[in-house]
Amino acid sequence: MTDTSVDTSDFELGxxxxxxxxxxxxxxxxxxxxxGLSANELRAxxxxxxxxxxxxxxxxxxxxxxxxxxxxxxxxTLSDVPLKIxxxxxxxxxxxxxxxxxxxxxxxAGALWLQFGVISPEGVAIAEQGGMKVxxxxxxxxxxxxxxxxxxxxxxxxxxxxxxxxxxx
Length: 169
Fold this sequence. Notes:
- Helices cover 29% and strands 15% of the residues.
- By secondary structure, the protein is of the alpha/beta class.
- The chain has one domain (13-150): NAD(P)-binding Rossmann-like Domain (Rossmann fold), CATH 3.40.50.
- The chain has a 5-stranded parallel beta sheet, sandwiched between helices.
- Strand 5, helix 3 and strand 6 (111-114) form a beta-alpha-beta unit.
- Helix 3 (97-107) runs parallel beside helix 4.
- The radius of gyration is 17 Å and the shape is globular.
- The protein starts with 18 loop residues before the first helix and ends in a 22-residue tail after the last helix.
- The mean pLDDT is 89.
């Protein structure tokens, strides 16, 4: 194993992709700290933050390498954020998730959301012990679009449900 990978062989991933939990988090969240939010518009974290902000959420960047992202002050750590955080959304390597989960617990966050490919059994255990809801290996933007009826934002919702192709033009 390299230092960026985490052993997930015994991890029950499906338990942390529960539609009920996802929907509950999406319906209750208002302020989202995005750990690893980048000012680079080509990064997935930037697009997710942009999407969430445009859908009415308060997005708080947490990245010690940035000063501002999406017009918001970027904080070096979760502990530096002066607001109550509902959800901590993580765009970092799995090996650092346990530290992020500990900090999220200390600040009283309600949920820990690990993006695609961010799978940390140890971080999940810390978050659960701290009373947080947890989602793993799911994109908050995609799940928001799926459950909150926003797939149209990028033109995915045509208003038709069919497997038949229309005539060629």
